[in-house]
Specification:
Strand content: 15-25%
Helix content: 25-40%
CATH class: Alpha Beta
Bound molecules: fructose -6-phosphate
Distance between the termini: 23 Å
CATH topology: Rossmann fold
Order of helices and strands: EHEHEEHEHEEHEHEHEH
């Protein structure tokens, strides 16, 4: 794992956006795996800026989102499709047909999940998968106890995740307890994984991901087995890491090495 520890959430977003921008400049038809939630919002703002000032174009790129609430159509204001339209897709030159979010209102969600994985394969696989992380270590909606080789499927949300996400729903509004999510195996197939975490509420999950055992109790710990993972986290999210200073030292050494190769 490459662990990049930065001062604050602004620096995390800037660093993450730069990874996307560089990929897009090298590979205009890149396939991105995207996430919703609070964490990627600042990164999406930077991608919008980069697109609007013509640093990059998304016109040949495509995307696959991690997850969607089961039971919500893409028009529903709390759906993840709606979230992506509002916070990214409507502001960049990506073609709507090239953006994919699982269909929460699919007639047969089980078939839809299988088709989602097949479509990712047909498009050549995901170049960079962006992830946030739940306080319980979930990635996508793969909650603790999710199979570490799982594929896209219907999953039940934990009470903790439902409570964490209740902030997005009005009082009395229907809040789904089920989701469609890429599986951990689906995420692991991505060529590169970028996990962002900010704030001390994520510190336990980051500790379990990096220094805990490989275990379905912390789904993100599966990333220990991925060959190209970059964690970009702020000081607060890194506060429980026992070897924090060593990770910073590795990064400084990496940068020196890269500079000497230029
Ligand atoms: C979102 C997703 C979730 C979030 C996680 C963190 O598509 O799959 O795993 O990344 O719940 O959410 P925030 O960023 O709101 O703390």
């Amino acid at each position: 794992m490459q662990i990049v520890i930065l001062e604050n959430s602004e620096a995390v977003a800037a660093h993450g956006a730069e990874v996307f921008i560089q990929k897009l400049q090298k590979k205009p038809n890149a396939v991105f795996g995207l996430a919703t939630g609070s964490t990627p919002l600042a990164l999406y703002k930077k991608l919008i800026e980069a697109n609007q000032n013509k640093t990059v174009s998304f016109s040949d790129a495509s995307s696959f989102n991690l997850d969607e609430y089961l039971g919500l159509s893409g028009q529903h204001p709390q759906s993840y499709r709606h979230f992506m339209q509002e916070n990214l897709f409507n502001h960049i030159d990506i073609h709507r047909d090239n953006t994919h979010v699982p269909h929460g209102d699919a007639e047969n969600p089980i078939t839809a999940c299988k088709e989602y994985d097949e479509l990712i394969t047909q498009k050549g696989g995901i170049d960079i998968q962006l992830l946030g992380i739940g306080r319980n270590g979930h990635i996508g909606f793969n909650e603790p106890s999710s199979g570490l080789s799982s594929r896209t499927r219907v999953k039940t949300l934990t009470h903790a995740t439902i409570a964490d996400n209740a902030r997005f729903f009005a009082e009395g509004e229907f809040q789904p307890h089920l989701s469609i999510t890429m599986g951990i195996g689906t995420i692991m197939d991505s060529r590169k994984v970028l996990l962002l975490a900010t704030g001390s509420s994520k510190a336990d999950a980051i500790y379990a991901t990096v220094e805990g055992p490989l275990s379905a109790s912390c789904p993100a710990s599966a990333l220990q087995m991925h060959q190209d993972v970059m964690l970009i986290i702020d000081e607060a999210a890194a506060e429980k890491l026992q070897h924090k200073e060593f990770y910073k030292h590795i990064e400084r050494e990496n940068q020196k090495l890269m500079a000497s190769l230029k």
